[in-house]
Structures are given as C-alpha cells and as structure tokens.
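Section 5.1 Outputs to date
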Amino acid sequence: MSIKAVFFDLDGTLLPMDQEMFIQSYFGRLCKKMAPFGYDAKTLVKGIWGGTQAMIENDGSCRNEERFWQVFPTLCGKDILNHVKTLDDYYANEFQQVQGDCGFDPNAAKAVALVKSFGWMAVLATNPIFPLVATESRVRWAGLDLQDFDYYTVYENSSFCKPNLRYYQSMLEHLNLKPEEVLMVGNDVGEDMIAEGLGMRVFLLTHSLINKKNEDINRWPHGDFEDFFEYIKRIAEE
C-alpha cells in the first residue's frame, strides 16, 4: 500500500536539540519568571513533571490540557491558578530565548517540502505535552510554520501521549488513514519507532538520537536527512 502521509516528530527531529540542555533552559527561565511570586524552583519543577506524567498516563478520558491542570496545582499550590497570565507571558517572551539552546537544520524545511511535493500529507506528530503557543514557537525555530502541516498535536487537541500507541491510533483515525499508509519519522527509539507496532513504516533520524535502552538501530531504516531524502524518494517510486 502506498504512502499517503509522513508523521514528523519535532524535538530532536525537525528541531535539533540536546534534550537535557533544552529542559534546563526551559525550566530555568520559567523558575526565574515565577520566583517573584514566591515559587521556589523545586516545587515548580515538581509540579510541571507531575502534570507532564499525568498527561503521559492519560487514558483518553479528557484532553491533555485538562489532565495537566488537574494535577499541576495540587503539587505546586492552587494559587498558581492566579498566575495563568504570567505563564502565558512566559511563553510569549522568556521562552523565546530557549531557541538559543536549540540547533537549526535547513534540511527540516526541505524534508517537509519534499514530502508535500509527492502529494503526501505532512503531519507534525510532536508529543502533545506543550500548549499551542510553545509548539508554534518550536516549529518556527525549526524554520517552519504550523501551516506547513496538514495536522499537528498539542496538549489542547490531544488525549494521549507518546509512547502510548493510542496516540498514533487516534491520529490515524482523525486523518482517516491506515497504518500502512503512514511513515513515522523521529529521533527517539522508545517514543517514535514504536509506531511500527501498528503497522506504520518508520525512519529513525540519528542527528539527535535518543536510545535509552541501547537497542540495535539497524533494525530500522536510519541515518541523517540525506539518508531520509533517499529513502522517501525510493518509497515514492514504489
């Protein structure tokens, strides 16, 4: 069955990054933003991680956004609900400085353009643990725009997260696609290559590789962007 869509991960895939450096910069700037309101870094980070874990474990009964805000205030104090505008301001301003801790590869935009030149859908399959404003920013840092994608996942429109296969299944259902019609492209073995379990094709980009269990990556098509370009050109000719 021929390919109709390519699902792209974002962080570490279209947007090169060292994940630990990104998290340190992201959390560090957020904690500094909230410090004048009496929030210590340890409590705030605990709340964010707790809310994130709740989204990862979401069973689909609510949106990830709702699940996050069910848990976040219980860990860092309900007064945080009075500072939602401050958090929004953080994403509009201080968060933009995190771009300096990420890389940039013009091949990201080239990859999306090449996929669309074949008449395939380009879908942004980034783990939906961030709000729309943060995802819009990270996409822009990668030299792209959300309008370049036929669909994208953010915490406002999603009820599952990676590595739950239901995350991928829900996207297939939303886009009326069969697994065999989709190629998933990502840099994280544990979160992206699992799409193969539904019958999707996969390609592992290795420039910001995450392989926590040290699996043998030779079992999947893999390489840099140039390898990816050659791979999808071959698929297009099938």
